[in-house]
Design a protein that fits this description.
8 helices, alpha/beta, 11% strand, Rossmann fold
Length: 230
């Protein structure tokens, strides 16, 4: 059976989703606070798990990480809260770069990602992988484009720290490539716990495969703990 890759734009056909209530009543707290307290400018680049605008066709009405029940429950906001506990002046910028995943062969990131260079972050979290098609994947080609992207993001910012976080649904070839060029934390094992997915909370299959509130918390904790040794 061909491995399903869920794309951030959620073009899966089907009935429109209906959002149900998730049981979480308050944003969870990530308690481990041992990373470098001098971090003041964080850039998080991801896909729909990082940020997804509302798409009524699939019943997604939020403007935050799909399929968290509210913005404060997605992994970006959980990490942001922790960074600000350490440094109240810390700035966190999060962007969806799923087009790079899908169109890496031809995508003009030099144009669209110039704003990321201009931010001069001291920490970059790359949380991608799900949307890179595995069927017919040319690993060396993706590797070359990924290295070019890293080089571009580090231009005139040689001391920036980079943490890569792997695919939630699992994309082993891409995870392996990402792990070779910076500190890396895998997320694949999280998807084996079905409570970490929003199953039963949305009618649309693509949306329901995204992390639930507890899944978002697990992603945030995995990334946070991965920052310890940067």
């Amino acid at each position: 059976m061909k491995k399903l890759i869920l794309i951030a734009s959620i073009t899966i056909l089907g009935l429109a989703s209906c959002k149900k209530e998730q049981p979480t009543s308050a944003p969870p707290t990530i308690t481990k606070l041992t990373i470098d307290t001098t971090i003041s400018n964080v850039l998080i680049l991801g896909n729909s798990i990082t940020f997804s605008p509302a798409d009524i066709k699939v019943g997604w009405l939020g403007n935050w990480g799909m399929a968290a029940s509210a913005p404060e429950f997605d992994y970006v906001h959980l990490l942001t809260a922790n960074f600000k506990r350490l440094n109240p002046k810390c700035m966190v910028t999060a962007r969806n770069i799923s087009r790079f995943e899908r169109e890496y062969k031809t995508y003009n990131y030099q144009k669209d990602f110039k704003e990321f260079q201009d931010l001069h972050p001291d920490l970059i979290i790359l949380r991608i992988g799900e949307n890179v098609e595995q069927i017919g994947l040319n690993k060396s080609e993706f590797e070359g484009k990924y290295v070019q992207l890293l080089t571009f993001l580090k231009q005139n910012n040689a001391n920036v720290k980079v943490l890569a976080a792997g695919s939630f649904w699992g994309n082993d070839p891409i995870d392996k490539i990402m792990s070779e060029y910076s500190k890396f934390v895998p997320l694949k094992n999280l998807s084996y716990d079905q409570t970490y997915k929003a199953k039963g909370l949305f009618d649309n299959y693509g949306v329901s495969e995204h992390p639930s509130d507890s899944g978002m918390k697990a992603i945030a904790e995995t990334i946070w703990n991965g920052l310890d040794k940067l």
